[in-house]
Amino acid sequence: MAAGERETMIDIHNHLIYGIDDGATDLETSLAMARESADEGVTHIVCTPHANDEFPFRSPLIQERFDELRGLLDGVVELSLGCDLHLSAENILDALANPLRYSINGKGYLLIEFPNTSIPPQLSDALFRLQAAGYTVIVTHPERYPALHRNPEQVADWMRQGCLLQVTASSLYGRFGPMAQAIANELLDRNWIHFLATDAHHPEWRPPHLRKGYQYVANRAGEETAQRLCVTNPQAAIEGAAWPAQPEPIGLWNRVPLKIDVRHYASFLDPVPIKVEKDGEKSETKGFWNRLFAK
Known about the structure:
The structure is a single chain. This protein has eleven helices and nine strands. The protein has helices at 27-40, 59-72, 89-97, 123-132, 146-150, 154-160, 178-189, 211-221, 223-239, 279-283, 285-293, and strands spanning 9-14, 42-47, 50-51, 78-81, 84-86, 109-113, 136-140, 164-168, 195-197. It has a six-stranded parallel sheet. α4 (123-132) links the parallel β6 (109-113) and β7 (136-140). The relative contact order is 0.15.
């Protein structure tokens, strides 16, 4: 990048559409988030509403408000539509029955979200099914799952299975705590991150700040890496294009264990609470997966 030239970026994970999940609450908030993103240098946002038990994916309303925002933001920032798909049995069955429905622009790249507290081993089979149906699976914010804090090597298994990883930009500099920060930086150092995104929900408490993450990556891993995570790879996802060439993932195929040094990240900025599922939700997990794999 030439001296003085400002980076442009693509944010593939943003809860911009108002009134449908725990993201933007109203039109004014959506517009404020979008304009702040544009001020950051973001030229394209993928709107990724939740699809989970609390916030079902209401396609007609989502499409209506997406079209409204796209019209109002014409000339400010480009918009695409995707989904933050929670891996419940019901969602997986619907995604399999409606190929590419939840993917970015309907072109195959799919953001998936795991349960926070427990990740059943049957998930590997579910991921294979989604891949066989034509999806390119992107695991969202693996550094933030408490279940992976106990077993971070699960990330390597998913990558060997062909999944891509999207890390939250602010995890790199500590907004989600020292464990998330340690994991995110270890993944960055090993070339295991494929996308950097904001997972923005609100202009203040979950802001759409991608530029700071871009600059962090550029300083730690180089400008080419920042471009790859914030521009090149996201561009392929929104276009449904062939996956670009990537650097060798260090330690993946020879199974070198991750080195998570939490003590190095003992101080962190503005911790964000992570929602923990209720006991009832955890106890229902086995029944969900039994129904799925009985099909």
